Amino acid sequence: MTQQAIAVPVTREFQRQRRRAVISAWAGFGMDSYSIYITTTSLLPALAYFQGTHMSASDQSIFAGLTLAATLVGRPLGGLIFGHFSDRLSRRNAGTITILGFGTMSLLIACLPGASTVGAGLAVTLLLLFRFIEGIFLGGEYTAATPLAVEYAPANHRGLVASCIQCAASIGPFFVALVMDLVLLVAPNHGVSSPYEQWGWRVPFVIGFILSVLVAWFLRRKVEDSETWKAAAAARKTNRSPLLELLKGNTRRLFITAWALMTGIFFFSNISGSVGPQFLVKDAGFSASELAHTNLITPFPAAAAYIVMGWVSDHIGRKRALYISGGTSIIVIPVFITLMGLGHVHSWALLTLMATANNICLGMLFGLLPSYVNEMFATAVRSSGWGVAYGTAVIIPAFFSYYMVWLGHVMPFVWTAALLAVVGGVIMLTAAVLGPETRGVDLHTIETGAELDTVQA
């Protein structure tokens, strides 16, 4: 394989396009995160609307886990579909379609009938189906917008720029919590007939639709595909699917590395950062409003952790930064979820402090992913590599609630989440050890030989 360097003059127009690409990627990923956490924040207190009033605590936990899993299972399909379109047709157009797609599904979910109207079976089926379809569009969003912004970013600040985009994962839950907190002021939640369970939960979904339309408009009208992608598209010598190219030679090995890295991190995220803590503290007496207040505070330290660790990786390398963040997380996160599971957290202040430490660890990990993983792949398969690895990595961790139940037959249930978090940490650190160092790779190149390979540092 030979590589051809692409001259990309840093003109005023280029800098303007760079800013717009980063802003649109940040906003798109923020809406992605907003859509994911609606289930675990705004919809969680209204589950009886879909399932009826005769739900046990374990049924509620499984149902909430399924609503998250349905979305996460749809994401790999979105990565496959829209990763192909992003690499072959246009990163900008693929991003626009996917953002409009999950925004539309959010609006449709807001219109769903409940168990009292159509029966629990149909109500639950429609919710899970719509969340699955929404997951497909969510899985497609980051295959396009993030690689586009990374290709625009300067090499010596790529970790910082990419982490600023990724920190939107914390901003999404913040806006969900803010909207939910405001809705609860006018639509209290005190049972299946309460205003919140009847209509209040719909408001965050409608707002998500409106914001998604605005972001999609900005991306479509104000952002251009990068010169690197345009040159790679013009020089393409084969119509072979990017996915087939992705599974060849050294690219396949690094795809597996990226997938394992993210699988480990999603064990941390799914267990400690979304559904897990709310399951574990549900018997401690915390109300929906108190949990919403916690979620109003924790995103900001987490967002700072994203950015700081991205900046650090620009100076010490991606792998060293992963060792620091992974080593810290494998200690802090299991302790956090175990203390909650054992019932030692009764103070809202202590809950918020521990949740903040937990989210800082998650921010340190996720802040490194966009730059590190996108730097692994050549221009012609970058969206597919990033999107498919990210999307498929969520599948195994998505069913963590079932693993906890199974492990509960051989060990105390309150320790199961911590054990799974440790397993995730081991997987993540192993992948980091086996992966390459990518800091400083030149993304402004295209592959002109017969064999597509991976961009190397």
Overall description:
The protein has a single domain (3-447), classed as Growth Hormone, Chain: A (Up-down Bundle), CATH 1.20.1250. It contains 23 helices and 2 strands. It has helices at residues 12-41, 47-51, 57-88, 91-110, 115-118, 120-152, 158-166, 168-186, 195-200, 202-222, 227-234, 242-246, 249-272, 275-281, 288-297, 299-316, 318-341, 348-366, 369-376, 382-393, 395-398, 400-407, 416-434; strands at 3-5, 445-447. Strands 1-2 form a two-stranded antiparallel ribbon. The longest helix is centred in the N-terminal third of the chain and has 33 residues, at 120-152.
The name of the CATH superfamily reads: MFS general substrate transporter like domains
CATH structural class: Mainly Alpha
Biggest sheet strand order reads 1-2
**How confident overall, as mean pLDDT?**
82
- Which architecture would the CATH scheme give at its second level? Up-down Bundle
Helix content: over 70%
**Rg value:** 21 Å
Distance between the termini: 15 Å
The ordered string of helix (H) and strand (E) elements is EHHHHHHHHHHHHHHHHHHHHHHHE
Give a quick account of the main beta sheet: strands, pairing sense, barrel closure.
Answer: 2 strands, antiparallel
What is the count of structural domains?
Answer: 1
Task: Report the β-strand fraction as a percent range.
Answer: under 5%
